[in-house]
Design goal:
The protein is mostly helical. The protein folds into 2 domains: 124 residues, no CATH class; 103 residues. It is built from 10 helices and no strands. It is elongated and about 140 Å long. InterPro entries: CLAMP. Pfam families: CLAMP. This is 4930578I06Rik protein.
């Protein structure tokens, strides 16, 4: 690790940046190549440790020259304790503090001791596990598309819930009524075509026979044609009556809904009413309190 590029101005800039920008600036000062934060967890945690040492020292008021020394101290401690037991690590920490005794004042040296004891030593096994051996990373990346909710309409354009439901019901009934009218027209057309087809088929029979019909045959022929017309008209009338009944029923439902339509109060009126009630309540409470004091 190259510490030559670490300068008081450099660590000051690291401290002044937000964490992502500060870590990136520190990486460049250390002359590290870019790396995958997830796959190279060892280097990522090492960079975090050095960055946190800068934040600690600057936050405690260390001069910027001493902040650079704290980073150097951190890097040396991590390197010298690799593979050591926790007892050996505590001994190495104590020796290093004595070595740096002339580079920090007593207050800063004690703060440095507390910092590494309550961070590095307290989590020593974790540091050794991550920084002391290679880790096998099995990573699965899944890209998920998150759809943001639609932009809500202004509150001024909102409606009372009961009123909105009422309008939806009225609209549904209106749509059903329109569909009934369309269905009736299509049904009448269909029945008319059916009647014309039956008459045409019936009239084709005497034409194919190519002979003069007798009086009795002609009467039967006319009676049968009248019967076809009558049955067809009867079917049309039945369908029309049923459709008209359904349409009238829908109109009645709409009328009933409109008679029972909710009437939302304007917000200004409701707000004024609420304020009046609150004023009355506060006035009554003050009068009751005044009477209690007199007693």
């Amino acid at each position: 690790m190259q510490m030559a590029l670490l300068t008081p101005q450099g660590v000051k800039k690291v401290f002044q940046c937000q964490k992502p920008e500060g870590r990136e600036h520190l990486r460049r000062l250390l002359n590290w190549e870019q790396f995958d934060e997830v796959r190279d967890s060892r280097r990522s945690i090492l960079l975090d440790t050095l960055y946190e040492s800068i934040i600690f020292a600057a936050g405690k008021g260390f001069p910027w020259v001493e902040v650079v020394k704290v980073v150097k101290f951190t890097e040396e401690l991590l390197e010298e304790t690799k593979g050591c037991s926790i007892t050996e690590a505590v001994t190495i920490l104590g020796n290093k503090l004595r070595d740096y005794q002339g580079q920090f004042n007593t207050t800063h040296l004690l703060a440095l001791c507390d910092y590494f004891y309550f961070t590095f030593i307290h989590h020593y096994r974790l540091y050794q596990y991550v920084l002391g051996q290679d880790q096998e990373v099995n990573l699965t990346v899944t890209h998920l598309e998150v759809c943001a909710p639609p932009q809500p309409l202004p509150l001024a354009e909102g409606k009372d819930r009961d009123l909105w439901k009422h309008e939806q019901q009225v609209a549904e009934l209106g749509m059903a009524e329109a569909q009934k009218h369309i269905h009736l027209l299509l049904l009448k057309e269909s029945l008319q075509l059916k009647r014309e087809h039956m008459l045409q088929k019936f009239l084709e029979v005497p034409v194919q026979q190519s002979r003069v019909l007798k009086r009795e045959e002609l009467e039967n022929f006319i009676n049968e044609a009248i019967h076809i017309q009558t049955e067809s008209l009867k079917e049309v009338l039945q369908c029309e009556i049923q459709a008209i009944y359904d349409i009238l029923d829908l109109k009645l439902q709409k009328k009933t809904l409109n008679l029972n339509a909710p009437i939302p109060f304007p917000l200004s009126i409701a707000g004024q009413s609420g304020q009046d009630e609150a004023l009355k309540f506060n006035k009554a409470r003050k009068e009751k309190k005044a009477k209690g004091k007199k007693m």
